[in-house]
Amino acid sequence: MTPRRWRAAKATLLTLRCANWALQRQAGDQEDIVAQAVHDKWLPGLQAITGPWTTTGDAAALQRLQQGGALVIANHQSMMDIPLLMSACGPVPRFTAKASIQRWPFLGAFLTAIGTCFIDRHAPRKAQAAMKAWGHKAAQHPRALIAGFPEGSRSQDGQVQAFKSGLFRVAAASGLPIVVVRITPETCTVEAKGVIAPNADANTLRELALQAMLSTGTTT
Length: 220
Fold this sequence. Notes:
It is a single chain. With 220 residues, this protein is of the alpha/beta class. It has one domain (52-214). The chain has helices at residues 3-24, 31-50, 59-67, 81-87, 107-113, 124-139, 166-174, 202-214, and strands at residues 54-57, 70-74, 94-98, 117-119, 145-148, 178-184, 189-196. It has a seven-stranded mixed sheet, with helices on both faces. The longest helix has 22 residues, at 3-24.
């Protein structure tokens, strides 16, 4: 087994162990148990495998990631994107995920328990209704963070792909601000690009988010 595959195998086993630990303690919406599983067990374990991670960027965006009350969007290149993004957050963010992940051992059950929004891409209307309900629920909790990848799938060449509209409709309907984050998995770096104020126009939010993602500086 190559070193890269060995590290991936160790990371997968660690992920399943942490999910099982949380499930045994009936994590659900118990934020302290979820935080222990993610911040005290999973993320330190992954960093021990990969080496140190770096978080940098716009001060207002970094503060919002620690305070909560936002929709977080990021570019998507690798399986490391979720833990890297989580490492920059105070509250544990809840993600969108494809419906098939619900069937994964331990992890699927854990993600279901903590309120992940599972998307059935074969039923777009049902998926959009689920996402809107997910956003409204988050808006009722000031410390909540929800997160997703507006490209919809992983970029194969590292270039940011076109943004799909779903997450921006969630932000527009729920009145949540958007924190834009750029992730570089090769260097384990998370850069907070800026905060976009609430706006009822999803297309405007999408355009502003893409501008922020592609900018060389930070945008607030």
